[in-house]
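Worked example 2:
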Amino acid sequence: MKISTKGRYALRMMLDLAQHQSDGYVALRDIAQRQNISKKYLEQIVPVLNKSDILRTNRGFQGGYRLAKSPDQYTVGEILRLTEGNLAPVACLEHEPIECERSGECPTLPVWQGLYRVICEYLDGITLQDILDQQKELLAGNYVI
């Protein structure tokens, strides 16, 4: 499994919105500038995130985007599933129940199921708030006299 640019940028966008939550609605151009991501690319990601109601949108002069919930209610797994689709490491695990005709006798299926479980547990166990808190800790120890 390889996370695409779309998934990585969506996560960065969501983190940016979490960091600037107190600023109200944030313009896409501001996110693009801070994250060094093309505004055009973010414009392609926004509809995917908007479909799932994880963003609030405001049009007009003071328009922009903001999180619909608090940062501790968004997991990395949730964001990546929206942008990447299924996080399964192999195609045979992309559907439930497993549609592969060999699944009943496949000796490697338990290996892939275990990997998939670990991937999901890990990514679903990290929230945007966790990442923000970790970043604060790293920056707190990085001071110069």
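The beta strands are 55-58, 64-67. The chain has a mean pLDDT of 91.
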